[in-house]
Prior knowledge:
Elements: E1 8-11, H1 13-17, H2 27-39, E2 44-49, H3 62-68, E3 76-80, H4 84-92, E4 97-103, H5 106-113, H6 117-133, E5 137-143, H7 156-169, E6 173-178, H8 185-196, E7 204-208, H9 215-224, E8 229-232, H10 252-261, H11 270-283, H12 291-302
Parallel strand pairs: 1-8, 2-3, 3-4, 4-5, 5-6, 6-7, 7-8
Bound molecules: 3-hydroxy-3-methylglutaryl-coenzyme A (HMG) and magnesium ion.
Amino acid sequence: MSLPSKVTLVDVGPRDGLQNEAQMVAAEHKIELVHRLQNAGLDAIEVTSFVSPRWVPQMSDNAAVMAGLQRRAGVRYSALTPNRQGFEAALAAKVDEVVVFAAASESFSRKNINCSVAESIERFRPVTQAAHAAGLRVRGVISCALGCPYEGDVSPDAVERVARAMKDLGVDHLGVADTIGVGTPLKVQHALERALRHFPLDEVSGHFHDTYGQALANVYASLQLGIHIFDTSVAGLGGCPYAQGATGNVATEDVVYLLHGLGIPTGIDLPALIDAGTFISTLLHRPTGSRVARAMAAQQTKS
Ligand code: HMG
Ligand code: MG
């Protein structure tokens, strides 16, 4: 069995993580988090989302956060854009990549972005065209690819329908997301295989929430298929305001530990990443969600 020789991690903590916090995090602290992540070697960071401030007030400082970044060459800064209005704001804020997100389930689509799956795809068409015209990459994400908080099980056929629609839209990349963290390895492989029917291996990624403790196993199952790009979240932050009970994404620290243990380079400095996780966890007054960070802190206390 040969695993990928290198893996890229997209830290989605500043967006997926902080969108779900009851307490508002100041823009300056979000900026500091992004800086710490890039200093730790992350070269892809999902910074914010250009969504309605009524729907997700936590991201209403999107433009201020983007404007405050000290950008590092070689780092890709992305943001979610659910419609043309969000795209125009993201363009003005000089993001490098926009993310459009469609659900594999109708109910989640309505709860999350207030339209049907088909309508969402039609909204993404002008976004994708305008992004490409402006020279930006477009990442498509399929939410609820492994299960839906309202409808339960989601079939690989439903995943493939959205994958085909995303391909038809012309997005550059497809992420397969387990929004509520219910997926198990075989099921994850089946969903990814449907994505791989429409996108090349280099342009398919996994996004696993860890609600049921399966996320690392799901990362490994993806590696077995050759998938080498994952969304992860520093300190295991994350969730979705429209998926009650879903916990954070798999912690970036834990995935880095897994990958380095497998001899797969990531370009990420684990101690610096743990410092970034400590910074945000302290600010949120809660223990880190990273098992590796907790274990290493316990080691340090002992020695
Ligand atoms: P809507 O209410 O149907 O929008 O919301 P509308 O077009 O009818 O407009 C209503 C008002 O919203 C108008 O303002 C617009 O200007 C404003 P008003 O005239 O009433 O003052 N508006 C906006 N404002 C700022 N930015 C925008 C924007 N669009 C409209 N882009 C909408 C539709 C999509 C906007 C809304 O449902 C929304 O913002 N949803 C976002 C929900 C969200 O962010 N969810 C979390 C992210 S997805 C996720 O976490 C999953 C993921 O991690 C992968 C995974 O784990 O599965 C990606
Ligand atoms: Mg998510």
